[in-house]
Every structure is written in structure tokens, then in C-alpha cells.
User: Fold these one by one.
Assistant:
Number 1:
Amino acid sequence: IIELGTPERSVITTCAYCGVGCSFKAELNGDELVRMVPYKHGKANRGHSCVKGRFAYGYANHKDRILNPMIRDSIEEPWQEVSWDEALAFAAQRMRGLQDKYGKKSIGVITSSRCTNEETYLVQKLTRAVFGNNNTDTCARVCHSPTGYGLGQTFGTSAGTQDFDSVEDTDIIILIGANPTDAHPVFASRMKKRLREGAKIIVIDPRKIDLVRSAHIEASHHLPLRPGTNVAVVSAIAHVIVTEGLMDQDFIRERCDWEEFSEYAEFISDTRHSPEATELLTGVPAADLRAAARLFATGGNGAIYYGLGVTEHSQGSTTVIGIANLAMLTGNIGRRGVGVNPLRGQNNVQGSCDMGSFPHELPGYRHVKNDDVRDIYQEVWGVQIDNEPGLRIPNMLDAAVEGTFKGLYCQGEDILQSDPDTKHVAAGLAAMECVIVHDLFLNETANYAHVFLPGSTFLEKDGTFTNAERRINRVREVMKPLNGYADWEVTQLLANAMGAGWHYTHPSQIMDEIALTTPSFAGVSYDVLEEKGSVQWPCNEAHPDGTPLMHVDGFMRGKGRFIVTEYVATEEKSGPRFPLLLTTGRILSQYNVGAQTRRTANSEWHHEDLLEIHPHDAEVRGIKDGQWIKLASRSGETTLRAQISERMSPGVVYTTFHHPDTQANVITTDYSDWATNCPEYKVTAVQVSNSNGP
Ligand code: SF4
């Protein structure tokens, strides 16, 4: 036990890791942060936390932090430390020079889901108001962009329908493509509590994740599907519900478009969606599919929770639509205990989408082609806005390789480690003439940068994050920025170096502008957040206290929309040369590419990525537990150690991507979701063989 005594002061702020958005009391003695205590009045966590938020904040003072700006003429040259003025003038001159030479649309940005709403809003404003194009994208491209598309098309809004409290009234949970025990630990605890009280759970996942069987919990059904077959499994469940007459006809008649439902019902009733036909495609026994469907349709309040195992597929958007169809079929929308709930990965990935980071949408998910919406911004910003959607991240990289995209401002995102097909990302970055990396550390992407602008941690700034339940939480400055500027100030300085003339003096003014221009945020201000603690959007005149549950009296789009969901097999196929399927995910103590958690004591628990492999698959290859193996795909190869695990299904292997040495994304393919380009990280055909190590 370490006796820390009574702290001199404390500041309430929000965790900067996952989309649960836990509130913490940062306790300080003088200027020294001595501990993070979960805040008992935090509405998302109620005094709970996990090992990341509680202990892994030490990266803020890590010796690897870069605190001075740096520039270089070419990526072959060494970095040169310069003043902020010099770095910003260099960056501005280069970016403007590229636009003069190659055109207005030759440059763009990647916003950060780690940064605040206010910072993200400013970066997309920089793109639209200063660069004069819509070339802005976000890491949601590689995680939940199919959620934005699928829920937008069916329900009319691109976000989860429930608050976290809603799980307390749930009777039957479908958990698909998500492992909350590792990725959303505090919400997983609430889910487990409800399961211990008697609720049931159907887990759809190739792995036997913790929620299939852990202390006092046994899933009613585990459907261990073959990776890449989500659409078929969801359709089979819908097939049973429709053909056995288990749907909620009153809900569908009253709340949904009946003509579209009729078309969908005819489609889904076809025998190609039957459990027996689906068993052949997915490997899930027909009897289990049938039993799971009956349980979900008749078991009381049904809620669906899902994660990246749904979205990061070539049919990610189709599965999200299928999930929405299931919820509408069973009338599980618009009250406590039900709903469709994407478990968002990053602390502010919901917010970065809300704030207009996508190249086709202004803040509040309004299309750039909409003249009335552009008029709002044109009046407030005093500039014309391009009405053509800009480039997505993969399009930026393709255009860079082709020679038409030349400059990138990348804030808080390490695309070389996180995005698929590492070789292609590197080729795109290498082809650009100005890459500005704005980050805490010299990350992998910075190897290709010409300007490095030091970033600030969540402890060094004011602002807001929006969590997976649309809750807007305050982030408060615990310590002064070590580099001199919070990230929103750096973006403003860059905009002004390019001639913008912005003069925000506090992030609350940026939030006021967001409220002025975005109807779903019209009632949000720092005063309101101070008074209420937090609010869930939409928060406006119609919903002054925010909106814990969506689609209560009607869908945001009017009538709920059923859309047919034809299963199309991924192009990525296993075969004699690559007989296993690789899927990827996270582990409790580490976070994403590990830039923060690897620089804390959390690395003692997990200091390398491992390849989980079923005992049979290991035995036939002569692989022992802990042994080095070579993991090879059609895209590339890497080495890591094997972990023999009964959690795996035969034929499926699994690894995490927290350590740059592993280079998991050298292996992954460049297939992506048909609607949003979200990469298919979850299905890669691989071979595993013995190795002597790296
Ligand atoms: Fe909460 Fe997620 Fe932070 Fe853990 S990582 S403390 S669950 S917000």
C-alpha cells in the first residue's frame, strides 16, 4: 500500500482511452499528478475504472515526449529543432506552395479521435475554410464508418440508440463482434452484473471470449462463426423470426415503412437464409441459430451490442444494416433495455464523427452538397465552402501514389501503424511533399514527416469528449501544456499562418460556435455542462436535458427503413497456401497501437503481441506454446510468438496490434467495406510456420 496522503487539489476530467468515457478525479500535490481516482458521480462509470484509465497516464511525462517543433526539407535529412513561429511558417508556406503548384485539392487532413470535440471541429474548419476543400477524414474510417452509414440509412442517425444505464433493463443481449471485457472494461462489468441478475446473452464471435464463459456467467448460445460471415448469421436469425411469425407486427406497422418491410420479409424468407443453408457457410450449427433467434425474439427486452468485429469487414455496413433490421423486426427500439449499441473504440471517435471529420459531411452529419447547411457555415465562417465531397484516407494515399495529393496535416493518428497494407501507406506518405505530424511522440508516421508539431495530452487541455452513448463529458486542464500550447491552439496558429485570422481564446468559444451551427448541439455550452455534469446529444430546445434514449416516438428519419442484406463472400479466401484465417483485436492492458500504454507500467503485463492458435492447428504444424512462428499472408509476413489457446476455433488464429515490432498490418489485406472503405482487418488468409525469431 502506498500512502499518498491528502492531495492538495483535484480536477474532474475524462479518461482519454476507450469510448466508455469514465470520469476521474485527477489528484495533485502542487503541479505533480499523484493519482487518478474514478469519480463516483461520473455518469458513465459511477466510480469504476479499468487499468488503463486508472494507472496508464504516466505517458504524459514520458521522456519520449517531443516538446519542441521540428522541421526538415526532406525525410532523408535529420530533424532540426526550431521555434513555433518558424515551424508554423514553414508548414504554412509549404502547404500553400503545394496548392499553388498542384491545385486547391492537393492537400488535406486527418483529424484525431483522441483529441477533443473543439479541436476536431477546428481541424475540419481548417480544411474547409482555409484549405478550401473537403479533404478531411478520421480514424473512424478504419473502425466505425459502417456504423455511421448503416444506422444513418435505417434509423436516420449515425449513433447508438441507448445510454449505458439501459442495460439494467435488458433481458437478452446479442453481443456480436465485440469483446468488452478487454476493450470496454467498465461497461463489460455492468453487462456482467445484469447477466448475474438473470439476463441472457448470445455471443456471436469466432473466439470463446470471456463473456462466453466466465465467473458466474455462461452464454446461452455461443455462435462461433467463420470470420467474414456475419451477414449470413444475422440473416439466418432474421429468417427464423420472420418465417416463424415471431416479429413485432404492431411495431413494424406503426414505426416502419411497411412497403420496405414487405420487400425485406420476402427476401429474408427465402430458404437460402435458412439456418441449414447458413450452417454450410458459417460453420454455426443450424439448431443453435434457430434457438438463438427464438430466444432473442421471445426473451423480453432485447439489446444488441457490437464492435469492430462487425464493422471491419468488406460487408461491415451490410451487417450494421442487418442488426438494425433485427432490432426493428422485434420492436426492440425506443425504450430502456433494448436498442442497437455500437461500442465505440476511442475516447472521442463518436465526437470526431459528430464534428464533421468525414469528407462528405459537415458537423451534425449534414451533407456538404446541402446548400442550406453550407449557407450556415458560409455565414459564420465568412468563406465559400466547396460542395464536392473530399477524399477518404485510402483515396488520399492512392492519390499520393498517383501524384495528385501532395500535403497532409495528420493530428494524433499514426496511420503507418494503424492502417491496413503498411507498404501502401508508406508509399503514399513517401510520395507527399509536405507531411505535418502533430503528435506526442515521434511515431511511425513521423518517419515520413517534414514538420513535427508537438501535441498535448488530455491532461493539458480544456474541452469535451463524446462517448459511445453520445454523452458529452468535460475534459479539464490538470496541468499546463508541456509544449506551450494545447492542440486547438496549434491548429489555430497554423490556420492563421495560412491567413485565416481566427481569434479563439478558450475552447468554450469553439463549443459556442458548434452550438450555433449544429442543431443536435444547440443546447450545449460549458455552463450547461458545468450545471448538469454531462449531456447526451441531441441537446437542444426540444431536448434541453439531452437524449438518453433515441427514436422513442419515431425514428429520426421518420419511418424506420428495412433494407435487404445480401451476403457476399469476401474476396479474401483461404486455400492450400494460406489455410488459416487471421482476425485481430485488443487486450485489456494495452490500447490500440500502444503509443500511450506502451510507455507506462501496463507494458509489464503485455509486452509483446502473441498469435493465439488452436491446439490442433499448432500440433499439426509442430508448434509449441511460446515458440517463435512466422505469420505470412499474400500481403507480407512477420514473426511473433505462439500462444496455444482453446479460445480459438480450429482454422482461425488471432493477434493484437499494440506493438510496432509485430507489424500486424503488414499482413492485412487492402479489401474494404463496399460503402465506406473501412478496411477488412478481421479476415486475412494466412500460413503459420516455425521460425527462429526476428
Ligand atoms: Fe473507462 Fe475505458 Fe478509460 Fe477504462 S479505458 S477507465 S473503461 S474510459
Note: The CA atoms of residues 145 and 676 lie 6 Å apart.
Number 2:
Amino acid sequence: MTAEPVRIALLLPDLLGTYGDRGNVLVLAQRLSWRGIASETITVLSSSAAVPDSCDLYLLGGGEDVAQVAAVRFLRRNQGLQRAVGRGAPVLGICGGLQVLGTSFETGDGQRHSGLGLVDAVTEPGPDRAIGEVTTHSALGGVGALTGFENHLGRTRLGGHAEPLGRVVRGTGNGYDQVEGAVCGHVVTTYLHGPVLARNPKLADLLLEWAIGEPLEPLADPPELTALRAERTRSYARTRK
Ligand code: GLN
């Protein structure tokens, strides 16, 4: 097992921190700790000098259009994230983070902005905000069912170099082709808040396995999560009647 603490970079929570996605860091650290593995969280703020390129895993949360534009500007200038992706470090981008990591996104005021181009995905505003519970099925590394909460105006079309994270069972997702999220190599993006890793521990463990480069021993789901998933399934069944 790895002796050095696993270094998790939380990118720009002061810009892309509107939807509580920083909880994903707590989940990753806790799941490592339950297995006796130490971790260190490196928080990169918009006032920080640079993005370290040596971290094991990177997280980018959701936020408003204006904040997304500032995030792209900052991450372009630093290039640390791009270098880390170049050596295969895993990245999780949520909602606004998905759009920032993509090829381009159009904000609500009709302006088109270049993204970082780390994911082959183009975002344009939809006819309305997509808000509510989402359920998908993912073919990625044994992840299976994913659940979360979406709240976004943007609709995202994937290019040929991106795979969807999941097929939409319920909810809007990307808004095209009944798919949700985008995966390019070890860059995983999704519209799911929750935080998504609290609700989907298998996805958390897949990212951690990529980060440390070895398989992790399985953990039993906490009873709260089992109860939440059962409740969501029941309420979904009720809405389908
Ligand atoms: N501003 C983006 C949109 O509305 C992303 C929102 C979010 O991160 N939840 O599409």
C-alpha cells in the first residue's frame, strides 16, 4: 500500500463551490482513512499562485456562469492541471466544472467561451433549467447505477473523443442522446451534485484506485446511504405509477 499520503487537490472552491461539491473531498479522504490510508487536501483558491501538477487526484465543483469564466482564465494561466492530466492523474468535474473542462460553453448572456479542452464536450444554454433528481446507469469500471441532483441551464453535446458517464434512466443529464456526463481517459465529468461521491461510493473508489494505481479493498456501504438509495428508488417508483 502507498506510504505517502494521497494528495487530493480541491480546485477553486471560492469560484466553483456553490453546490456543496467540496463534500466530495471529505468522502475521498474518509474512504481512504477507513482503509488506513492517509490523505492530504490541497485547496487551490483563485488567489493561489499556481495549481500543483503533482497531486494524485483533482476536483472541480459547480458554480455560476461568471465564476466559470474566471476559473477557465485561472486554470489556463497555470497549466498545472493540464500537466497532471497529461500524466494520467484522475479529475472529477461537476456541472460548471464539466463545462469548464470541456471544449467550449455558452453562458446565459449568449457569450461563447473556450473551455480547457480536456473533455470533448460543447455546452450551450437549454430552453430551461434542468432541476431535480437524476438516475443513470454507468458502464464505467463497475460503477453501475448513479444517482444525484441536477441544477443547470447548459446542455452538453459530446464529441467523438468523449464517452458518456452514464445512460439517463431519470432526469435530464446532458440533454442530448439520453446520456449524462463525459469521460475522457481519467477525466470524469458529471452534472450530478449530491455530493455525487457521497451518494455513489463506487465512483469514489474508482477515482481513488486510479489515483493510487492499485485496487482497494471493498467497504460496506454506510446504512444511511443504503436507506437513502432505497428511499430514492421508492419515490421514483411512485412517480412512475
Ligand atoms: N452555470 C452552469 C449552468 O447553469 C452550471 C451550473 C452548476 O454548476 N450547477 O449550466
Note: Helices lie at 23-33, 65-78, 80-86, 96-101, 196-199, 201-212, 223-240.
